[in-house]
Each structure stands twice: as structure tokens, then as C-alpha cells.
Amino acid sequence: MTCVFFSDATGQYIKGEIGVEDEDGVIEDGLQCVAILIGIFQKSSGRPIFGVVVQPFAVWSSETKSWTSHTHWGICYKELIATSFQPLLANSDTQRKIVMSKSESEHVQKTLSSKYKLISASGAGFKILVTVMGLANAYVLSHQSIYRWDCCALHAILLALGGGIISYKHAVEMASKSQVELSVTDLENLQINYVKAAGAIANRRSSLPNRTDSLPGIIAYRSIDDVRTILNLLKIKDLQ
């Protein structure tokens, strides 16, 4: 087993500003977006099995002028499945939401906005955390700008919740070629893997955007229904 440690949204930490919640309960930028991500994956399979996420600046108290931290965790290893979060309850009255970057493709935004409300937040890891927390149903990133260490800890938590993180490029390609919805097995095979032919996660210097170590986009989701809906929408766009 191998551990991955990473600090997300360092730019927000450097700015040192206090973020404000929007109407969806999401903080778009600010110290609240900073997260320490600790993930463990199995070297033999490349599957994430345990994740811990610490938000050192989760809640600001204007009265005491101090921060309260939050710690989240999840494990998904063989029969041991547990998490500090609760699975989503079906609610047809709740508006479905997707978190993404403001720089996301205009075509992707237009396509997904037909069934989802689009919201934004800072930091790749924090966007996944927004999904884990149930503030969004999914995080969609269509371009190559995210790394495995951004995903590992939160991926394990999502798996424990019945969700996951799949490759955007390969999932859209597979969905576009299929006449039926992707099966659970298909989604399992599309999960981001943390072991490569050359070994485990490479160091940050070798993982530049023009190298193969960055991921070709991702879809992080809490429910299979949502990822299937998203892929059906993207498949239509991809075939036009």
C-alpha cells in the first residue's frame, strides 16, 4: 500500500481571504477551500482504499476570530466500507448540480446545463470535496489539468459512498460507442487507477500538463444514476 499526501488550493491559502457561502452553500474561493488530502491506494491493483481530508479553515467565527477545522474520511477495502459521510437520499424536488471550473469548455457547460445547475469553486480537490459533501451531484472536468494526488483521498471516500471518479476522455468515448447505458462493470473499469506501468504516482516535477501523468479530465460522482445521465448528455454532444 502507498500513501499520497497533498495540500489543495494553496493559492487560496496564500491569499488568506475568508470566503463567503453562496446560495448553494458552496464557497467559491477563500481559506475554506484549502484542504489537506491523505490517500492510500493498493499497489497491486492501483485502487484507492482509504482517504482522509482535513479542512484546517472550515468554519470562521467572527465572534472568537478563530477557525474550526473539519476532518472527513472514508475506507473502501474488500468488505470494509465506511465513511464519515452519509449516502445521498433520493429527493426528486432537489435541483441537481454540477461543480466545475469557470474555464470549463463552453460546449460542456451548455450541454450539462440542460439538466443540471452549474456551480463553481476553487481547487481541484475542493471541487471533488463539494461533491463528496453532497453540495453537488458531480464534478466534471473535460480537459487535462488534474493529477492523481488531487483525487486519491477523495476517490476512496466516494467509492465508500457508492460513487467514484472516472476518466472523462475514456468514459465519453466508451459511452459514445455504446447503444446502452454503461454497466457497473464498465464504470468500475473506468475508475482512475493509481498505479501505472512505470510504477506508482510520479513526482510533481514529472507531472507537467504536457506529460502523461496528468489525467485526461475526470467525472467525480456520488451516484451511478448521475454519472449515467451526465454521460448520456455528453455522448449526445460528442456525436453532434
Automatic annotation (TrEMBL):
Coiled coil: none annotated. SUPFAM superfamilies: Carbohydrate phosphatase (SSF56655). The keyword Repeat does not apply. InterPro entries: CysQ/Inositol_MonoPase, Inositol_monophosphatase-like. Keywords: Magnesium, Membrane, Metal-binding, Transmembrane, Transmembrane helix. Its cofactor is Mg(2+). The chain crosses the membrane at residues 118-140, 146-168. One of its GO terms (molecular function) is metal ion binding. Mg(2+) binds at residue 150. It comes from the Eukaryota. The keyword Magnesium applies. Gene3D superfamilies: 3.40.190.80, Fructose-1,6-Bisphosphatase, subunit A, domain 1 (3.30.540.10). Belongs to the inositol monophosphatase superfamily. This is Inositol polyphosphate 1-phosphatase-like protein. It comes from Elysia marginata.
